[in-house]
UniProtKB/TrEMBL annotation:
<protein>
    <recommendedName>
        <fullName>Glutamyl-tRNA reductase</fullName>
        <ecNumber>1.2.1.70</ecNumber>
    </recommendedName>
</protein>
<feature type="binding site">
    <location>
        <position position="110"/>
    </location>
    <ligand>
        <name>substrate</name>
    </ligand>
</feature>
<comment type="function">
    <text>Catalyzes the NADPH-dependent reduction of glutamyl-tRNA(Glu) to glutamate 1-semialdehyde (GSA).</text>
</comment>
<dbReference type="GO" id="GO:0019353">
    <property type="term" value="P:protoporphyrinogen IX biosynthetic process from glutamate"/>
</dbReference>
<comment type="similarity">
    <text>Belongs to the glutamyl-tRNA reductase family.</text>
</comment>
<keyword id="KW-0560">Oxidoreductase</keyword>
<dbReference type="InterPro" id="IPR015895">
    <property type="entry name" value="4pyrrol_synth_GluRdtase_N"/>
</dbReference>
<dbReference type="InterPro" id="IPR018214">
    <property type="entry name" value="GluRdtase_CS"/>
</dbReference>
<feature type="binding site">
    <location>
        <begin position="190"/>
        <end position="195"/>
    </location>
    <ligand>
        <name>NADP(+)</name>
    </ligand>
</feature>
<dbReference type="InterPro" id="IPR036291">
    <property type="entry name" value="NAD(P)-bd_dom_sf"/>
</dbReference>
<feature type="binding site">
    <location>
        <position position="121"/>
    </location>
    <ligand>
        <name>substrate</name>
    </ligand>
</feature>
<dbReference type="InterPro" id="IPR000343">
    <property type="entry name" value="4pyrrol_synth_GluRdtase"/>
</dbReference>
<feature type="site" description="Important for activity">
    <location>
        <position position="100"/>
    </location>
</feature>
<dbReference type="GO" id="GO:0050661">
    <property type="term" value="F:NADP binding"/>
</dbReference>
<dbReference type="Pfam" id="PF01488">
    <property type="entry name" value="Shikimate_DH"/>
</dbReference>
<comment type="subunit">
    <text>Homodimer.</text>
</comment>
<dbReference type="InterPro" id="IPR015896">
    <property type="entry name" value="4pyrrol_synth_GluRdtase_dimer"/>
</dbReference>
Length: 424
């Protein structure tokens, strides 16, 4: 197949190494063109925060670029001594390389198994290579098949079900409590990084109103402006809690800002009858006293609760790895078998043509000699017998060629067949 992948990922290289080997758009274009021109091979580069991989291919002819040359190229492009890169790099060839790409696209090789972003990144890498005209027959067949495999894994297994970030888990829970959000009020307390990320997910629910409370009026106004919300003075926090349906808290305060006593005295009496409050307390230390949770009208979740739900989701995804790997194995076999058929097609066609020619050279004068002695039906029987003999004769060499291709030992047999059958 003449396919090789050389690269590193989050398992083999820390973030410092991956950052040094990353390919921003301008370098990606230059490096792809240089690789293709210098070594005469098809090229695609996948560069993400968790992996950097070179895909190198030659559909026919000499063996594709060696691991050593690829490592030297990476060092040259990034101004890093190759010997410092070698311990962090892996290399896969042919069927193993195909399996690796299919597993990557299906998110089986991801930091978080089942994450959906990698398939899009693989697609972008392929489309970028196509635009740079560095792909050819092999990569143009390989990448679309990888993406089809990823789609099969997503649709036929549960490996991508459920969210696994704390912020998205929080939103998933909120969606279980409320079935609509157009009349709901979200209160944001504080302005931590995790809180802002969670707020982005909550904004997608299109709530009726967002209130922002912060000890700093300037910070409250800044966060409110970013989400189309309304800043609330810090001394009006109790009133805001009384109006909220969902409270998202991430202040980083040294002790709880809402005790059970304060909540029972200042907030519960102000709640509308029958109205539920969901508190997402993702601050460490916690902002809300856990005792305010009653499991009925007030549901409180802290960072440990959300992390536990996240871990349960990850565990559930693990149960789908085996069927996903089975799909990948089947698709790798489909691709390699199909590619061998494509690769052997011209040789097999030439062999059949040569034997057809020899058959006709023998059969035509024979039928001419027998002209008048055989009926038309009998002549057809003789011709059919010759064709059957030919097919049985060629079955062995063709089957041996296909088997040798699967085992990676096609070249010697091809040369032998060319000599034996006088092929061009």
């Amino acid at each position: 197949m003449n396919l090789r992948i050389v690269g590193c990922n989050f398992r083999t290289a820390n973030v410092d190494v991956r950052e040094r080997l990353a390919f921003p758009p301008d370098l990606h274009a230059r490096a792809s063109a240089e690789l293709a021109a210098r070594f005469g091979c098809e090229v695609a580069i996948l560069s993400t925060c968790n992996r950097v991989e070179l895909f190198l291919a030659r559909p026919h002819g000499a063996t594709v670029l060696s691991t050593e040359l690829a490592t030297e190229f990476l060092g040259e492009v990034h101004h890093v001594p190759p010997e410092t890169l070698t311990p962090h790099l892996y290399s896969h060839a042919d069927a193993d390389a195909t399996r690796h790409l299919f597993r990557v696209a299906a998110s089986l090789d991801s930091l978080i198994v089942g994450e959906g972003q990698i398939a899009g990144q693989v697609k972008q890498a392929f489309e970028a290579a196509q635009q740079l005209a560095t792909t050819g027959p092999l990569l143009n067949a390989l990448f679309p098949h990888a993406l089809r495999t990823a789609k099969r894994v997503r649709t036929e297994t549960g490996i991508s079900l459920g969210h696994v970030s704390v912020s998205s888990v929080a939103v998933d829970y909120v969606k279980q409590v409320f079935d609509h959000f157009g009349d709901k009020t979200i209160l944001v307390i504080g302005a931590g990084k995790m809180g802002r990320l969670t707020l982005k997910h909550l904004e997608e629910l299109k709530p009726g109103r967002i209130l922002v409370a912060n000890r700093s009026p300037e910070k409250a106004a800044e966060v409110a402006a970013g989400c189309g919300g309304t800043p609330i003075p810090w001394d009006k926090l109790d009133d805001a809690l009384g109006e909220a349906d969902i409270a998202l808290s991430t202040t980083g305060a040294g002790e709880p800002i809402v005790s059970q006593k304060r909540f029972d005295k200042q907030v519960r009496p102000k709640r509308r009858h029958g109205r539920t409050l969901v508190v997402l307390d993702i601050a460490v230390p916690r902002d809300f006293d856990p005792a305010i949770h009653d499991g009925d009208r007030v549901c409180l979740f802290n960072i440990d609760d959300l992390t536990r739900i996240r871990e349960q989701t990850i565990a559930e995804r693990q149960s789908h790895i085996r069927p996903a790997e089975a799909i990948v194995a089947a698709e790798v076999k489909n691709f390699t078998d199909d590619w061998q058929r494509r690769k052997n097609g011209p040789v097999i066609q030439q062999l059949r043509s040569e034997v057809d020619k020899v058959r006709d050279e023998v059969l035509t004068p024979l039928l001419a000699k027998l002209n008048g002695k055989l009926s038309l039906a009998e002549k057809e029987q003789v011709a059919a017998a010759f064709r059957l003999f030919q097919n049985k004769l060629l079955h062995g060499p063709i089957a041996a060629l296909q088997d040798a291709s699967k085992e990676g030992d096609r070249g010697t047999l091809i040369e032998a067949m060319k000599k034996l059958f006088r092929l061009g």
